[in-house]
Prior knowledge:
By secondary structure, this protein is an alpha/beta fold. The chain has helices at 15-34, 49-55, 61-70, 89-96, 145-158, 174-190, 209-221, 237-246, 258-271, 309-321, 325-340, 355-364, and strands at residues 2-9, 38-44, 72-75, 101-107, 123-129, 139-140, 167-168, 195-200, 231-236, 253-256, 281-283, 288-290. Helices cover 42% and strands 16% of the residues. The strands form two sheets. It has a ten-stranded mixed β-sheet, with helices on both faces. Helix 7 (209-221) links the parallel strand 8 and strand 9 (231-236). 1,4-dihydronicotinamide adenine dinucleotide (NAI) binds next to loops.
Amino acid sequence: MEKIQILYIEGDGIGPYIMKSAMKVWNSAMDFIYKGKKKIIWKEIYAGKKAIEKFGTPLPEETIKLLKEFKIGIKGPLETQVGSGYRSLNVALRQELDLYACIRPVKYIKGINSPVKNPEKIDIIIFRENTEDVYCGIEWEENSEESNELIRILNKKFGTNLNKASIGIKPISEYKTKRLMRKAIEYAIKKNRKKITIVHKGNIMKYTEGNFRKWCYEVFNGFNNQINHLEINDIIADNMFQQLLLNPSNFDILITTNLNGDYLSDAASAQIGGVGLVPGANIGDKIALFEPTHGTAPGIKNPEMANPTSLILSGVMMFEYIGFNEVANLIKNSIEKTILDGYATIDISPKALSTNEYVDKIIENF
Length: 366
Ligand code: NAI
Protein backbone atom coordinates (compact mmCIF):
# COMPACT_ATOMS: atom_id res chain seq x y z
CA MET A 1 0.00 0.00 0.00
CA GLU A 2 1.28 3.46 -0.92
CA LYS A 3 1.02 5.99 1.89
CA ILE A 4 1.20 9.74 1.60
CA GLN A 5 1.52 11.84 4.70
CA ILE A 6 -0.34 15.16 4.76
CA LEU A 7 -0.42 17.73 7.53
CA TYR A 8 -3.57 19.47 8.63
CA ILE A 9 -4.51 22.35 10.90
CA GLU A 10 -8.12 22.21 12.11
CA GLY A 11 -8.52 25.96 12.43
CA ASP A 12 -10.70 28.10 14.69
CA GLY A 13 -14.45 28.77 14.71
CA ILE A 14 -16.17 26.54 12.17
CA GLY A 15 -12.73 25.05 11.31
CA PRO A 16 -12.89 21.81 13.32
CA TYR A 17 -16.43 21.05 12.08
CA ILE A 18 -15.74 21.55 8.39
CA MET A 19 -12.35 19.83 8.65
CA LYS A 20 -13.91 16.68 10.13
CA SER A 21 -16.53 16.56 7.37
CA ALA A 22 -14.09 17.38 4.58
CA MET A 23 -11.75 14.65 5.73
CA LYS A 24 -14.59 12.15 5.54
CA VAL A 25 -15.08 13.12 1.88
CA TRP A 26 -11.36 13.06 1.03
CA ASN A 27 -10.79 9.67 2.69
CA SER A 28 -13.92 8.11 1.15
CA ALA A 29 -12.86 9.36 -2.29
CA MET A 30 -9.37 7.90 -1.84
CA ASP A 31 -10.89 4.52 -0.88
CA PHE A 32 -13.39 4.70 -3.75
CA ILE A 33 -10.69 5.29 -6.36
CA TYR A 34 -7.72 3.38 -4.96
CA LYS A 35 -9.57 0.61 -3.06
CA GLY A 36 -7.06 0.72 -0.22
CA LYS A 37 -3.97 0.68 -2.48
CA LYS A 38 -3.15 4.30 -1.63
CA LYS A 39 -3.90 5.98 1.66
CA ILE A 40 -3.46 9.38 3.20
CA ILE A 41 -1.94 9.41 6.64
CA TRP A 42 -3.14 12.63 8.23
CA LYS A 43 -0.94 14.29 10.80
CA GLU A 44 -2.36 17.10 12.87
CA ILE A 45 -0.27 20.20 13.46
CA TYR A 46 -1.34 23.17 15.48
CA ALA A 47 -2.06 26.85 14.99
CA GLY A 48 -4.59 29.26 16.46
CA LYS A 49 -6.61 28.64 19.59
CA LYS A 50 -5.79 24.95 19.83
CA ALA A 51 -2.07 25.78 19.65
CA ILE A 52 -2.42 28.39 22.40
CA GLU A 53 -4.11 25.78 24.62
CA LYS A 54 -1.48 23.14 23.88
CA PHE A 55 1.72 25.14 23.50
CA GLY A 56 0.96 28.62 24.83
CA THR A 57 1.57 30.22 21.44
CA PRO A 58 -0.66 30.50 18.36
CA LEU A 59 2.03 29.45 15.92
CA PRO A 60 4.51 26.98 17.42
CA GLU A 61 7.95 26.53 15.85
CA GLU A 62 7.11 22.86 15.43
CA THR A 63 4.26 23.73 13.02
CA ILE A 64 6.56 25.69 10.73
CA LYS A 65 9.25 23.02 10.99
CA LEU A 66 6.87 20.21 10.04
CA LEU A 67 5.41 22.15 7.13
CA LYS A 68 8.93 22.77 5.81
CA GLU A 69 9.69 19.08 6.18
CA PHE A 70 6.45 17.55 4.81
CA LYS A 71 5.84 20.29 2.21
CA ILE A 72 2.07 19.76 1.89
CA GLY A 73 -0.65 20.79 4.26
CA ILE A 74 -4.26 21.84 4.44
CA LYS A 75 -5.76 24.16 7.00
CA GLY A 76 -9.03 25.49 8.30
CA PRO A 77 -9.54 29.22 8.89
CA LEU A 78 -7.70 30.96 11.71
CA GLU A 79 -9.02 33.89 13.68
CA THR A 80 -7.28 37.26 13.66
CA GLN A 81 -8.65 39.92 15.97
CA VAL A 82 -9.04 43.42 14.60
CA GLY A 83 -6.81 46.09 16.11
CA SER A 84 -5.14 44.05 18.82
CA GLY A 85 -3.61 40.76 19.88
CA TYR A 86 -1.49 38.54 17.70
CA ARG A 87 -0.48 39.36 14.19
CA SER A 88 -2.43 37.41 11.55
CA LEU A 89 -1.40 33.76 11.68
CA ASN A 90 -2.38 33.31 8.05
CA VAL A 91 -0.08 36.11 6.96
CA ALA A 92 2.68 34.76 9.24
CA LEU A 93 2.36 31.25 7.74
CA ARG A 94 2.44 32.60 4.19
CA GLN A 95 5.50 34.73 4.93
CA GLU A 96 7.46 32.21 7.01
CA LEU A 97 6.98 29.50 4.39
CA ASP A 98 7.29 31.92 1.47
CA LEU A 99 3.96 30.75 0.00
CA TYR A 100 3.98 33.58 -2.47
CA ALA A 101 1.13 32.63 -4.79
CA CYS A 102 -2.38 32.59 -3.45
CA ILE A 103 -4.47 30.86 -6.09
CA ARG A 104 -8.25 31.09 -5.91
CA PRO A 105 -10.39 29.62 -8.68
CA VAL A 106 -13.87 31.10 -8.74
CA LYS A 107 -16.31 29.11 -10.82
CA TYR A 108 -20.05 28.83 -10.64
CA ILE A 109 -21.57 25.50 -9.60
CA LYS A 110 -24.94 24.90 -11.27
CA GLY A 111 -27.89 24.93 -8.92
CA ILE A 112 -26.66 27.63 -6.59
CA ASN A 113 -28.82 30.64 -6.02
CA SER A 114 -26.48 33.49 -6.92
CA PRO A 115 -27.23 37.21 -6.48
CA VAL A 116 -26.32 37.94 -10.12
CA LYS A 117 -28.19 37.14 -13.34
CA ASN A 118 -25.55 35.08 -15.13
CA PRO A 119 -23.23 33.57 -12.56
CA GLU A 120 -22.21 30.84 -15.04
CA LYS A 121 -20.21 33.53 -16.87
CA ILE A 122 -17.69 33.60 -14.04
CA ASP A 123 -14.79 31.23 -14.43
CA ILE A 124 -11.72 33.03 -13.20
CA ILE A 125 -8.53 32.19 -11.36
CA ILE A 126 -7.18 34.85 -9.02
CA PHE A 127 -3.41 34.93 -8.53
CA ARG A 128 -2.86 37.08 -5.49
CA GLU A 129 0.64 38.00 -4.32
CA ASN A 130 0.85 36.63 -0.81
CA THR A 131 3.99 37.98 0.87
CA GLU A 132 4.22 41.74 0.22
CA ASP A 133 2.05 44.84 0.18
CA VAL A 134 0.54 46.38 3.31
CA TYR A 135 0.19 42.81 4.63
CA CYS A 136 3.85 42.72 5.67
CA GLY A 137 2.95 43.95 9.13
CA ILE A 138 5.34 46.93 8.90
CA GLU A 139 3.02 49.20 10.78
CA TRP A 140 3.23 51.52 13.78
CA GLU A 141 0.55 53.16 15.85
CA GLU A 142 0.01 56.91 15.91
CA ASN A 143 2.15 58.56 18.56
CA SER A 144 4.41 55.54 19.03
CA GLU A 145 8.14 56.20 19.19
CA GLU A 146 8.56 54.52 15.81
CA SER A 147 5.83 56.39 13.92
CA ASN A 148 6.95 59.74 15.38
CA GLU A 149 10.55 59.06 14.40
CA LEU A 150 9.59 57.89 10.93
CA ILE A 151 7.44 60.98 10.36
CA ARG A 152 10.32 63.18 11.52
CA ILE A 153 12.69 61.54 9.01
CA LEU A 154 10.16 61.66 6.18
CA ASN A 155 9.40 65.34 6.77
CA LYS A 156 13.05 66.30 7.20
CA LYS A 157 14.67 64.22 4.50
CA PHE A 158 11.98 63.59 1.94
CA GLY A 159 9.96 66.79 2.10
CA THR A 160 6.69 65.26 3.24
CA ASN A 161 4.32 67.21 5.41
CA LEU A 162 2.97 64.60 7.77
CA ASN A 163 1.49 65.14 11.19
CA LYS A 164 0.99 62.53 13.85
CA ALA A 165 -0.47 59.39 12.26
CA SER A 166 -0.37 55.64 12.28
CA ILE A 167 2.03 54.51 9.60
CA GLY A 168 1.96 51.39 7.41
CA ILE A 169 4.53 50.50 4.76
CA LYS A 170 3.74 48.87 1.44
CA PRO A 171 6.68 47.12 -0.23
CA ILE A 172 6.19 45.70 -3.74
CA SER A 173 9.34 44.29 -5.31
CA GLU A 174 10.42 43.29 -8.79
CA TYR A 175 11.63 39.89 -7.63
CA LYS A 176 8.42 38.94 -5.84
CA THR A 177 6.16 40.30 -8.56
CA LYS A 178 8.03 38.51 -11.29
CA ARG A 179 8.03 35.12 -9.60
CA LEU A 180 4.26 35.39 -9.14
CA MET A 181 3.78 36.30 -12.78
CA ARG A 182 5.91 33.32 -13.84
CA LYS A 183 3.70 31.06 -11.72
CA ALA A 184 0.57 32.51 -13.29
CA ILE A 185 1.95 31.95 -16.79
CA GLU A 186 3.02 28.39 -15.99
CA TYR A 187 -0.46 27.75 -14.62
CA ALA A 188 -2.04 29.25 -17.77
CA ILE A 189 0.06 26.96 -19.95
CA LYS A 190 -0.70 23.86 -17.89
CA LYS A 191 -4.43 24.51 -17.65
CA ASN A 192 -4.75 25.96 -21.15
CA ARG A 193 -6.14 29.28 -19.99
CA LYS A 194 -6.41 32.04 -22.58
CA LYS A 195 -5.81 35.39 -20.94
CA ILE A 196 -4.06 37.09 -18.05
CA THR A 197 -5.31 40.41 -16.73
CA ILE A 198 -3.06 42.45 -14.44
CA VAL A 199 -5.17 44.20 -11.80
CA HIS A 200 -3.46 47.19 -10.19
CA LYS A 201 -3.89 50.69 -8.84
CA GLY A 202 -0.88 52.06 -10.71
CA ASN A 203 -2.58 55.33 -11.59
CA ILE A 204 -2.32 56.36 -7.92
CA MET A 205 0.52 54.27 -6.46
CA LYS A 206 2.97 54.54 -9.32
CA TYR A 207 6.03 52.83 -7.90
CA THR A 208 4.32 49.98 -6.07
CA GLU A 209 1.17 49.10 -8.05
CA GLY A 210 2.43 50.77 -11.23
CA ASN A 211 5.63 48.79 -11.18
CA PHE A 212 3.70 45.63 -10.38
CA ARG A 213 1.98 46.17 -13.73
CA LYS A 214 5.24 46.94 -15.52
CA TRP A 215 7.08 43.92 -14.09
CA CYS A 216 4.22 41.57 -15.00
CA TYR A 217 4.38 42.78 -18.61
CA GLU A 218 8.16 42.35 -18.61
CA VAL A 219 7.86 38.70 -17.59
CA PHE A 220 5.17 38.11 -20.18
CA ASN A 221 7.16 39.75 -22.96
CA GLY A 222 10.25 37.75 -22.05
CA PHE A 223 8.45 34.43 -22.10
CA ASN A 224 9.03 31.87 -24.84
CA ASN A 225 6.64 30.88 -27.63
CA GLN A 226 4.76 28.52 -25.30
CA ILE A 227 2.44 31.44 -24.62
CA ASN A 228 1.51 32.35 -28.17
CA HIS A 229 -2.08 31.42 -27.35
CA LEU A 230 -2.15 33.68 -24.32
CA GLU A 231 -3.51 37.22 -24.28
CA ILE A 232 -2.52 39.86 -21.74
CA ASN A 233 -4.03 43.15 -20.65
CA ASP A 234 -4.34 45.22 -17.50
CA ILE A 235 -7.04 47.06 -15.65
CA ILE A 236 -7.24 49.50 -12.75
CA ALA A 237 -8.54 47.78 -9.65
CA ASP A 238 -11.67 49.89 -9.08
CA ASN A 239 -12.80 49.33 -12.64
CA MET A 240 -12.08 45.62 -12.18
CA PHE A 241 -14.80 45.38 -9.56
CA GLN A 242 -17.25 47.00 -11.95
CA GLN A 243 -16.23 44.88 -14.93
CA LEU A 244 -16.41 41.67 -12.96
CA LEU A 245 -20.10 42.37 -12.45
CA LEU A 246 -20.82 43.78 -15.91
CA ASN A 247 -18.64 41.63 -18.17
CA PRO A 248 -17.42 38.61 -16.19
CA SER A 249 -16.76 36.51 -19.28
CA ASN A 250 -14.01 38.96 -20.34
CA PHE A 251 -11.78 37.60 -17.59
CA ASP A 252 -9.80 34.45 -17.14
CA ILE A 253 -6.68 34.69 -14.94
CA LEU A 254 -6.37 37.80 -12.77
CA ILE A 255 -3.00 38.62 -11.26
CA THR A 256 -2.85 41.19 -8.51
CA THR A 257 -1.23 42.50 -5.34
CA ASN A 258 -2.07 41.19 -1.89
CA LEU A 259 -4.76 43.63 -0.75
CA ASN A 260 -6.49 43.93 -4.12
CA GLY A 261 -6.55 40.14 -4.33
CA ASP A 262 -8.10 39.84 -0.92
CA TYR A 263 -10.96 42.18 -1.77
CA LEU A 264 -11.38 40.78 -5.24
CA SER A 265 -11.63 37.16 -4.23
CA ASP A 266 -14.42 37.82 -1.73
CA ALA A 267 -16.29 39.97 -4.25
CA ALA A 268 -15.92 37.35 -6.98
CA SER A 269 -16.96 34.61 -4.54
CA ALA A 270 -20.14 36.53 -3.75
CA GLN A 271 -21.05 36.49 -7.44
CA ILE A 272 -21.10 32.70 -7.49
CA GLY A 273 -22.92 32.32 -4.18
CA GLY A 274 -20.49 33.15 -1.38
CA VAL A 275 -17.12 32.54 0.22
CA GLY A 276 -18.32 29.19 1.53
CA LEU A 277 -17.75 27.82 -1.98
CA VAL A 278 -14.39 29.09 -3.15
CA PRO A 279 -11.21 27.11 -2.50
CA GLY A 280 -7.67 28.37 -2.19
CA ALA A 281 -4.05 27.32 -2.38
CA ASN A 282 -0.99 29.10 -1.03
CA ILE A 283 1.92 27.88 -3.08
CA GLY A 284 5.64 28.58 -2.97
CA ASP A 285 8.51 26.95 -4.78
CA LYS A 286 8.61 23.97 -2.44
CA ILE A 287 5.69 24.07 -0.05
CA ALA A 288 1.92 24.20 -0.59
CA LEU A 289 -0.70 24.98 2.02
CA PHE A 290 -4.32 24.70 0.95
CA GLU A 291 -7.13 26.57 2.68
CA PRO A 292 -10.66 27.86 2.15
CA THR A 293 -11.15 31.48 1.10
CA HIS A 294 -13.42 32.22 4.04
CA GLY A 295 -12.66 32.89 7.69
CA THR A 296 -13.87 31.41 10.96
CA ALA A 297 -17.46 32.61 10.33
CA PRO A 298 -18.24 33.79 13.88
CA GLY A 299 -21.71 34.78 12.67
CA ILE A 300 -22.73 31.15 12.09
CA LYS A 301 -24.52 30.28 15.30
CA ASN A 302 -24.50 26.53 14.77
CA PRO A 303 -21.13 25.48 13.29
CA GLU A 304 -22.59 22.08 12.42
CA MET A 305 -24.54 23.89 9.67
CA ALA A 306 -21.48 25.56 8.04
CA ASN A 307 -20.74 24.97 4.42
CA PRO A 308 -17.63 22.77 4.00
CA THR A 309 -17.48 23.13 0.18
CA SER A 310 -14.67 25.67 0.14
CA LEU A 311 -12.48 23.44 2.29
CA ILE A 312 -13.41 20.25 0.40
CA LEU A 313 -12.55 21.97 -2.90
CA SER A 314 -9.28 23.23 -1.41
CA GLY A 315 -8.61 19.53 -0.89
CA VAL A 316 -9.46 18.95 -4.56
CA MET A 317 -6.76 21.49 -5.45
CA MET A 318 -4.41 19.57 -3.17
CA PHE A 319 -5.23 16.26 -4.88
CA GLU A 320 -4.54 17.87 -8.27
CA TYR A 321 -1.26 19.23 -6.91
CA ILE A 322 -0.09 15.75 -5.88
CA GLY A 323 -1.34 14.21 -9.10
CA PHE A 324 -4.36 12.33 -7.68
CA ASN A 325 -6.55 13.70 -10.46
CA GLU A 326 -9.11 10.89 -10.38
CA VAL A 327 -9.84 11.60 -6.73
CA ALA A 328 -10.05 15.32 -7.47
CA ASN A 329 -12.49 14.77 -10.34
CA LEU A 330 -14.63 12.34 -8.38
CA ILE A 331 -15.12 14.85 -5.56
CA LYS A 332 -15.68 17.80 -7.89
CA ASN A 333 -18.30 15.96 -9.96
CA SER A 334 -20.04 14.65 -6.91
CA ILE A 335 -20.28 18.11 -5.33
CA GLU A 336 -21.75 19.42 -8.58
CA LYS A 337 -24.37 16.66 -8.69
CA THR A 338 -25.25 17.05 -5.01
CA ILE A 339 -25.77 20.80 -5.36
CA LEU A 340 -27.65 20.46 -8.64
CA ASP A 341 -30.03 18.03 -6.89
CA GLY A 342 -30.65 20.81 -4.36
CA TYR A 343 -28.81 19.22 -1.44
CA ALA A 344 -26.59 21.69 0.36
CA THR A 345 -26.15 23.73 3.51
CA ILE A 346 -28.39 26.63 4.45
CA ASP A 347 -26.24 29.37 2.87
CA ILE A 348 -26.97 27.97 -0.60
CA SER A 349 -29.98 25.67 -0.39
CA PRO A 350 -33.43 25.86 1.20
CA LYS A 351 -33.02 22.14 2.06
CA ALA A 352 -30.57 23.41 4.71
CA LEU A 353 -28.66 20.19 5.31
CA SER A 354 -26.26 20.05 8.19
CA THR A 355 -22.55 19.92 7.34
CA ASN A 356 -22.57 16.21 8.01
CA GLU A 357 -25.75 15.40 6.06
CA TYR A 358 -24.36 17.33 3.11
CA VAL A 359 -21.05 15.45 3.02
CA ASP A 360 -22.91 12.13 3.33
CA LYS A 361 -24.87 13.10 0.18
CA ILE A 362 -21.63 13.96 -1.60
CA ILE A 363 -20.18 10.54 -0.71
CA GLU A 364 -23.43 8.81 -1.70
CA ASN A 365 -23.11 10.44 -5.13
CA PHE A 366 -19.63 9.09 -5.87
P1 NAI B 1 -15.67 35.12 7.22
O1 NAI B 1 -15.19 34.59 5.92
O2 NAI B 1 -15.45 34.26 8.42
O3 NAI B 1 -17.23 35.44 7.10
C1 NAI B 1 -17.74 36.29 6.10
C2 NAI B 1 -19.17 35.90 5.78
O4 NAI B 1 -19.21 34.67 5.07
C3 NAI B 1 -20.06 35.70 7.00
O5 NAI B 1 -21.34 36.10 6.66
C4 NAI B 1 -20.03 34.20 7.20
O6 NAI B 1 -21.14 33.69 7.90
C5 NAI B 1 -19.95 33.69 5.76
N1 NAI B 1 -19.24 32.42 5.70
C6 NAI B 1 -17.92 32.24 5.85
N2 NAI B 1 -17.60 30.94 5.75
C7 NAI B 1 -18.75 30.30 5.51
C8 NAI B 1 -19.06 28.93 5.34
N3 NAI B 1 -18.14 27.96 5.33
N4 NAI B 1 -20.34 28.58 5.15
C9 NAI B 1 -21.29 29.53 5.13
N5 NAI B 1 -21.06 30.85 5.28
C10 NAI B 1 -19.80 31.23 5.48
O7 NAI B 1 -14.98 36.54 7.41
P2 NAI B 1 -14.93 37.53 8.65
O8 NAI B 1 -16.20 37.48 9.42
O9 NAI B 1 -14.48 38.80 8.09
O10 NAI B 1 -13.75 36.98 9.55
C11 NAI B 1 -13.91 36.15 10.70
C12 NAI B 1 -12.53 35.75 11.21
O11 NAI B 1 -11.88 34.90 10.25
C13 NAI B 1 -11.57 36.93 11.44
O12 NAI B 1 -10.83 36.66 12.63
C14 NAI B 1 -10.66 36.91 10.23
O13 NAI B 1 -9.41 37.46 10.47
C15 NAI B 1 -10.57 35.41 9.96
N6 NAI B 1 -10.25 35.08 8.56
C16 NAI B 1 -9.38 34.05 8.38
C17 NAI B 1 -9.05 33.66 7.11
C18 NAI B 1 -8.12 32.50 6.96
O14 NAI B 1 -7.89 31.77 7.90
N7 NAI B 1 -7.57 32.30 5.78
C19 NAI B 1 -9.62 34.32 5.92
C20 NAI B 1 -10.59 35.35 6.23
C21 NAI B 1 -10.85 35.72 7.52
